[in-house]
Design brief:
Elements lengths: L2 H18 L4 E10 L2 H10 L6 E6 L5 E10 L2 H11 L6 E2 L1
Antiparallel strand pairs: 1-3, 1-4, 2-3
Length: 95
């Protein structure tokens, strides 16, 4: 995704979150990442000190790991900030 469409995506996401959620609120992130302890640790570190509950599950063949992360956030800007932080992890897919 180029920078312009990425910013448009986050702008639309922010609007939808403002319309659909009363803040502060719990937010569920879902990511798929190649099964690599360094990458998984990198994502876990992003959510350190947030009180997040992180569940992980390996795919049938063990090639990929899905991460479900439930965290209490103050506003949509915090949601978007975490997405941006996780986006630098190589191979991560945000659902």
């Amino acid at each position: 995704m180029d920078k312009k469409s990425t910013e448009e995506f986050y702008t639309k996401l922010r609007e939808k979150l403002l319309e659909s959620t009363n803040w502060p609120s719990d937010y569920l992130y879902k990511f798929i990442v190649p099964t690599d302890e360094k990458r998984i640790a990198q994502i876990n570190k992003i959510f350190d000190n947030t009180g997040a509950v992180i569940e992980s599950k390996k795919s049938k063949k063990g090639t990929y790991t899905s991460l479900s992360i439930m965290v209490h956030l103050k506003n949509p800007d915090e949601v978007i900030q975490k997405y941006k932080e996780v986006s630098v992890v190589e191979g991560v897919i945000s659902l």
